[in-house]
Amino acid sequence: MTSSGPGGPTPLSIDPTCRIEFGPGRIDRLPALIAATGHDRAFVVTDHGLRAAGVLEPVLKALEAAGLEHAVYDEVAPNPSTANVDAGAARARTFGTAAVVALGGGSVLDAAKGIALLVGNPSAAAADADDLWEAGDGLPLVAIPTTSGTGAETNGFGVIEDTAACRKVYIGHASVKPRVALLDPELTLGLPAPATAATGIDALVHGIESLASRGANPISTAYATQAVAMVSRALPAAYRNGSDLEARAELMLGAHLAGQALTLSGLGLVHGIGHVLTAHTGTPHGVALAAVLEEVMEFNAPAAQGAYEQVARAMRLAPPADGDWARAAIDGVREIAGAVEVKRPLRTLGADRAMLPSIAAGAVADPVTKNNPLSPDPARVLNILTTTY
Ligand SMILES: NC(=O)c1ccc[n+]([C@@H]2O[C@H](COP(=O)([O-])OP(=O)(O)OC[C@H]3O[C@@H](n4cnc5c(N)ncnc54)[C@H](O)[C@@H]3O)[C@@H](O)[C@H]2O)c1
Ligand SMILES: [Fe+2]
C-alpha cells in the first residue's frame, strides 16, 4: 500500500458511506431515522429466521410506539433469487411510497436494495439488473444488519441469483446505498454460534484482504487495521458466549469497519475462491472462505509482507523471533479459525475432486481476484485447493 508513486501522491476521492448509529438499544432511534429520510411510512424487509428468533419484534414495537404505518415482507431466502426480489417488490409497490427498512444478514440487505430500486422503476424486474445502474432512483434504505459479517450495509448493490439465466447479477444504484447503518448489537445476541463463526470470519477476511489488496489506500488501511483488531479480539469471545454483549458490540462495529474498508479497496483470491465454491456447492460464504484462508495467505506472503505485518500487529501478536511477521499472521489466523471451529477440508463441503479444476479457473476469472497482491494462474489455485482438500 502506498499513497504516493513515481508520479507523486495518488489522488483520492472518497464519499463517506452512510450515517452510523451504533449501540445497544439503538433500535429505539428507528422512527427518527425513518423520518430523516423524508418518509412517514416503512416497508420492512426481513426473513423467516429473524421473525422466528424474535429479532423482528423490537423493530415492530419501535414502529408501533411511534405510530408509524408499516408493512412487512419476511420471505427473503438465503442467497436470494431474482424471483424473490420481484415478489418483494410487488408487495412494496402495493404498499406504496415509504422508506425501506432492511433487517437481517447480507441476504436480506441485498434483497432489500433490489426491492427499493424496483419500486422506483415500476416497469423493471430484478433480471434487468445490468440496466438498472443508470435507471431512476429507488426508495431510501435504512439498513439494520443482524449478522456481524458481510458489511453489506456499506454499499448500494446486492448479489442476486438469476435462477432462470443461471448466473449471479449485481443489482444496485447510488440511491439505494443505505442512508443509515443502524448497528444495534443486542439484535445479534441470539445468532447461533456456527453462524457467528461463519459471518465473523467473513469480516476478518474482509480486513485481511483489504490490507493486502492492490486497491488499498491510506483510508481503507485505517478502516481495515481497526477492523482486524476488533474482529480478531471479539470473535472468539462472541463464539464462546453468544450473550457477551461487549464482544457482540465490538464484533459488530469491527465487521462494519471491514465493510467500509473493502468497499474502498476491493478484496482478493480468498473471496475469488469462496464465490465459486459457494456457487458450486452452496457452502455458506464464511465457511467457504475459511476453507482456504491460510493457504491463500501462504501463497500471497511473498507479495504481502507489509500487509501481513500490519495484520499481525493489529492482532497484537508478539514480535516473531525470526522477524517473519507474515508467518506470525498466518499462525494467528489459524488459531482464531480453530477457536471458532470453522475450518473444514474441501472434501467435506460437497466439492468433489473432479470439480477442483473448474473451481480454480472460476476463481482466477472472478472480478474480486484482480485485486489480489499476486496474480494467480489456475494451476497455482488448483494447488491451493488440493492442499486443503
Ligand atoms: N452486498 C454485499 O456487499 C455483500 C457482501 C458479501 C456477501 N453478500 C451476500 O450476503 C449473503 C450472506 O449473508 P450473511 O452471511 O449475513 O447470512 P444470511 O443473511 O444469509 O443469514 C443467515 C441466516 O442467519 C439468520 N440470522 C441472521 N441474523 C440473525 C440473528 N441476529 N439471530 C438469529 N438468526 C439470524 C437468518 O435468518 C438466516 O437464516 C449472501 O447472499 C452474499 O451474497 C453481500
Ligand atoms: Fe465476504
UniProtKB/TrEMBL annotation:
Q: What is its EC number?
A: 1.1.1.1
Q: Which Gene3D superfamilies match?
A: 3.40.50.1970, Dehydroquinate synthase-like - alpha domain (1.20.1090.10)
Coiled-coil regions listed: none
Q: Where is the Alcohol dehydrogenase iron-type/glycerol dehydrogenase GldA domain?
A: 19-185
Instruction: Say yes or no: keyword NAD present.
Output: yes
One example of the protein's molecular function in GO is:
metal ion binding
Any single Pfam family the record assigns to this protein? ADH_Fe_C
Q: Which InterPro entries match?
A: ADH_Fe/GldA, ADH_Fe_C, ADH_Fe_CS, Alcohol_dehydrogenase_Fe
Tell me which UniProt keywords the record has, alphabetically. Answer: NAD, Oxidoreductase
**Main EC class the enzyme belongs to:** oxidoreductase
Outline the extent of the Fe-containing alcohol dehydrogenase-like C-terminal domain: 196-388
Family according to the record:
Belongs to the iron-containing alcohol dehydrogenase family.
Report the PANTHER family cross-referenced here: ALCOHOL DEHYDROGENASE, ALCOHOL DEHYDROGENASE 4
- Protein name in UniProt: Alcohol dehydrogenase
